[in-house]
Amino acid sequence: MAEEEPKHHHSLFHHHKEEEEENQGSVDYEKEEKHHKHLEHLAEGAAAAAGVYALHEKHKEKKDPEHAHRHKIEEEVLATAAVAAGGLAFHEKHERKEDKEEKDKAEGKHHHHLF
């Protein structure tokens, strides 16, 4: 008889479609919130790292005039990456807030915002 091989999940953000199919009706809001918080922290770290490296390239640009153009381009690319990572962190924070609001709504807690 043919044995089934264990299914390996290799994806960027570790989404498991089979688990989602099994839990169609129930949503683990705390798990979702924790997931978005984790991604938010990763994005914040990436933004900080790219920003620091961009500053390093700016310093190299001044110290190494022979390769200044290369360092300038690398600085701009890294600055763009830092902004993109910051945007991802902002997005994940927003997703986390939405998950929390959905959790509160599912539990019967309603917050009325007047302004």
Summarize the structure.
With 115 residues, the chain is mostly helical. The chain is built from 3 helices and no strands. The longest helix has 39 residues, at 68-106.
Descriptive tags:
115 residues, mainly alpha, 70% helix
Note down, in words, how this protein is organized.
There is one protein chain. This protein is mainly α and 115 residues long. Helix 2 runs antiparallel to helix 3. The chain is elongated, with a radius of gyration of 22 Å. The mean pLDDT is 83.
Poorly predicted residue ranges: none
Tally of contiguous helical segments: 3
Strand content: under 5%
Measured on Cα atoms, how large is the radius of gyration? Answer: 22 Å
User: Shape, please?
Assistant: elongated
The average pLDDT score comes to: 83
Distance between the termini: 66 Å
H/E element order = HHH
What order do the helices and strands come in, and which of them pair?
Blueprint: H1 17-22, H2 29-63, H3 68-106
